[in-house]
Automatic annotation (TrEMBL):
Assigned protein family: Belongs to the PIGL family.
Residues of the signal peptide: none
Name of the protein: N-acetylglucosaminylphosphatidylinositol deacetylase
GO MF annotations, alphabetized: N-acetylglucosaminylphosphatidylinositol deacetylase activity
Organism listed in the record: Scomber scombrus (Atlantic mackerel)
InterPro entries associated with the record: GlcNAc_PI_deacetylase-related, LmbE-like_dom_sf
Amino acid sequence: MGIYLAALILLSFLLWIKSIFHRHRLTLLKSLKRVTNMTSETDGADVTALLVTAHPDDECMFFAPTVIRLVELKARVHVLCLSEGNYYNQGARRKQELLDSCAVLGIPASRVTITDHKNLPDDPKAEWSVSLVSSVIAKHIRALSVNMVLTFDGRGVSGHANHTAIYKAVRLLFALLGDCWPPEEIHLLLGASPQLAAALLSLLHCWLRGLQASQSRHALSSLSTPVVSLPVHQLIALHVH
């Protein structure tokens, strides 16, 4: 009886996760259609997206499905990482890991920027200046002619203080410059915190798939949900924890 109950709970959980992935996919497609005049799911060439993260490994832990989907749709994806991840004095190594991870995701090194500002340390106890983060993000949005920004939501997906600081900075940027700068032409896509469980389950799913076919080429599944065919454990393995 216990086995059947456990199986029922697991099945219910998997169905819930599938519904989350489905909603995520619909949200992304709606965002693309608002930014572009695309009439199909396979044309995102008019999209220039900026993924703003706090540390190396955020790009694959929290945003890999979205990034891979955008790259598949031929969108130009840039990454702005606001620290080199030096909390354990491994900044140089983690910077290279970020570049390697982005390469697997389909983002060339020329589109990856890693800042090393003394006032933006990799530290969950550090209070990042919202105005400073806003200015750094604004500079990149202008320079790259970005029309889509991807970053954390108000809870930072994992609750990390550096993550939530980025959310506050982006919201401040859009609020203060709305009248004199065109954020109305820029679509903001936030990684929702409730999807953390889905992200972790996705990593487990991809790891299990990787045991069977670890050499599969990265792409999105042909299913109706944005599950990453690439074994994401290969990305996570590039990072030090």
